[in-house]
Amino acid sequence: MKLKRDENIGILFALPTLIVTFIFSIYPLFKTFIYAFSFTDEKGKIVEYAGLENFYELFTDPAFYSSLIATFKFAIITVTLSIVISLFLAILCNEKIKGIGFFRMVFSSSLGVSISAAASVVLFMFHPSLGIINEIIEICGGTPINWLTDSKYALITVAISTIWMNIGFGFLVLTAGLQNISADVDESCLMDGAGYFTKLFKVTIPLLSPSIFYLVITTTLKAFQSFGQVDILTGGGPNNSTNFLVYSIYKTAFSNYRFDYASVQGVILLLIIVIIMLSKSKLQKKVHYQ
To answer: What pLDDT does residue 287 have?
Structure first.
């Protein structure tokens, strides 16, 4: 009887979380799949059953493939550079140097920067006429670049703001990983006569593989869901060069009022994320756990 009462109390405490999860996660997901196989009007009401016609329209739309390619390019750039820069800074700050605590604070400070703030700073820095980046280019004798209105540079500019935001979190994760490596490892390397870079690439980085693997997964998922910086900096342009999948879903649903077509894109994005998560198990075999 007491066990039954404890179970009821447990369910009661879990009920608010279950309700919120259902309203904001399960129900929208269920509704998205319904919309994907239906035709809707501009108010989002289902007009008729569409079958696979929305999917056919999506897979024959060149704009979708352009958006998909831009998303993958963005993900590769941001994930790679975020982890490499974070790793470099973490290794640097792991050295016993006087005043290194100040630099640790500085390198991790981007963790507290919001998307809108980071995008606004980048917007000011890369402004075609007022930005400090173009001023430096002019001082060096170069020609100013239209960072946000030229399709060759827009994706790079958006990536820079994203990398900046990622560095703080990556730095903290990798610093924690470095400090978790036993001092006995360093002593063993010294006794074996291993040089600094030999120890770094043969011992330290392999021992950091769990932290790096975690960052690869989380940063990739964040890259595929990037929205705020795109909205502030480029609005998906120019020429759809930064029209990533999430932003394309937003524009399709709330600018063009094609809720059915936006839902199809959402389903595809969900499948991509599921594939990434499933690949986690295979990649995890290469991770060296201490």
So the answer is: 65
